[in-house]
Write a structure and sequence with these properties.
Elements lengths: L1 E11 L4 H18 L7 E8 L8 H6 L11 E6 L10 E11 L7 E2 L14
Parallel strand pairs: 1-5, 2-3
Antiparallel strand pairs: 1-4, 2-4
Length: about 120
């Protein structure tokens, strides 16, 4: 029996096509592999990007291929991150909505220094 989960992640990159593409693929691969996600179980992937990232849309980066699993039939969406005074720059955030086994323990992924966005989540 499965239930719906939302798995979060974030990464940073430079504002150029290759850096955004690489960062999105690495972040998504980490989420997919660590959470044992199957393409057919995914419902949607929602991205947000800070306003200083303009070279490539994160959802378009996924469509360009490269992630560990096929996302061609997954609903994708990307929006601009809310601008918060003092907020981290050049950040891409993601929320993957997927079905997993009911008792799955999800693993959120924070790459490239974005673990600072979640000081409440101490690493063990």
């Amino acid at each position: 029996m499965k239930r719906l989960f939302a798995i979060r992640g974030a990464t940073t990159c430079e504002n150029n096509y290759d850096s955004i593409l690489k960062a999105v693929h690495e972040m998504c691969d980490d989420i997919f592999i660590k959470n044992k996600i199957k393409s057919e179980d995914m419902v949607s992937i929602q991205f947000s990007m800070t306003k200083d990232l303009t070279a490539l849309n994160a959802a378009a980066a996924v469509r360009k291929g490269g992630p560990a699993i096929d996302c061609s039939k997954v609903a994708l969406f990307c929006t601009q991150e809310a601008e918060i005074e003092g907020g981290m720059e050049k950040v891409i955030r993601v929320m993957v909505t997927t079905y997993l086994p009911r008792k799955a323990e999800i693993i959120n992924v924070y790459n490239n220094g974005t673990d600072a966005l979640r000081p409440d989540r101490k690493k063990s």
